[in-house]
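so my prof wants the structure for this chain in the tokens format not the other one, which i didnt know existed until like an hour ago. anyway here's the sequence
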Amino acid sequence: MNPSDYLWRLVHLMDKSEARHFRLAARIHNGKKNGGKKKYEYLYDEIKSVELAEDYSEDAIRKKLDKEDKVPKGSFAVTKNYLTDNLLRALRYLNESGSVEGKIRVLLDEAQLLFGRGILYKSAKQLARAKKLARKYQCFPLLAEILRLEVKQQVSTMSRLEKPFQSISRLYEEQDAAVKSLAQETEYNRLMNQAFVLYHTRNTLLGEEGIRLLETLRQDPALKKPERFLSFRSELLYHHAWGLIHTVENINPKLIFFHYRKTLEVWDKHPIFKEEYTRSYKLYLFNFLSTCHSQKDYSSFEAILGKTQEMESRTIFDRSRDFFNTCQYKLLFLTNAGKAEAAQNLAREVEEKILLYGKLRYPLPKEKLLSLYYNISVMLFVTGHYQSALHWTDKIRKELRKTAARLDLKYFTRILQLLILFESGQDDQLDYKEPYVKRLLKGQDMYSGFDAMVLKYLRKLCKYRYTRDEKELFRALLQEIEDSEAQYRKIRGREEVKLWAQSHLEGKKMIDLIRENFQAKKGGQQ
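here's what i got, hopefully its the right format
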């Protein structure tokens, strides 16, 4: 994105209610001059008229508005800044009224303004309303501020209090409880975020350093279950942190599932938080879907996915993220259920939508694009659509070559391409691409023992294709994968290669093996 594009994004990424409020505020504050419009409104209209970001030219708009005597060339920069300020003011106003923290902040600010002008009764009323909301939704940082102002109020009116000493003492006890609750929340938030970093670097931070960091986090005294959780968020973050830690360890699937199931139970125990923090709840549902997929437990998958789709995505940014998450998990379910045709149709829809989002300059997170492209590539590989699979692996190589996110996926895609070339009989390309991939992975310090194993067998399979030895080579590869399970459990691509080898050994299509496995598990869960 060019630095000057930010104003186009700000204008076009507002939803209807935000744009309406901006227009209304502009009409209220503007006079009759120029038909009731001000310079920044003309600039807004011009930016709004440019539908695609690729067609946006600040220089062209500046010249056009100057020629039409709407915004003189010399005042364009000032007008641009004024428009930015007014757009942010509209967004800030709606955010204040749209979140409980915003409402509490407004009430607290009003209480402080009234207190500063000596209007103590009304100040106390506003503060009491703020306090009630802060307690109800456990907004401890704001509650601490509210209690500090309440102390000031009571000190200034202590002559009217029946027992001023006891009243002040009670407020400090409340303040102490709020600080302790906030401290517990902060500690679990730290642990969860540190575990989150390890989770997202688990396939690139290999060796002793990664093991040491994980063990240090695991032994943190704060992760011992407390006598009681002091808030909804503390309990939620505690289970989220442990879920991530067990996922990185990848030793006990039951513990992973247990803690992520617990996060949903915590939400269910506090329905008012589900109603107020719908966005956060939705993300936890997506997290649980990820856990279900990793454990190959799809018993509640469709129901939870349906629940996420019933929840509104308020902002364009949220809609973009939800589009990726929904498509990702829907694709994973369809692939693992063996519903090949539906999965392929979804892939086509995804490509069209991403193209449209790109033109509109919607926020497209690179790590989510990479993950979605990779899963589409795998789906097409296991369904035997090799040319289409190569199309998507090429998109990863060309469109996302500079991204530093999900290096495990990015580099295993290179090996996946070689498997696709093998399946489509393009041995001539394998002869020169296999050594190149090996050099590339080694050069990026991403060449694992597992990668070496796969490339070793791939070279032999090319040599002995269509001979009696081919089946024995697949048998040996599968055995080596199973023997090294503990060593390569966390390596990306292990399950994909294992499925590929099994399909050749059993003489079945990969998608048929997936479908059989899905039906067997479904029968076992009933």
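also thought this was worth mentioning. The CA atoms of residues 73 and 205 lie 53 Å apart.
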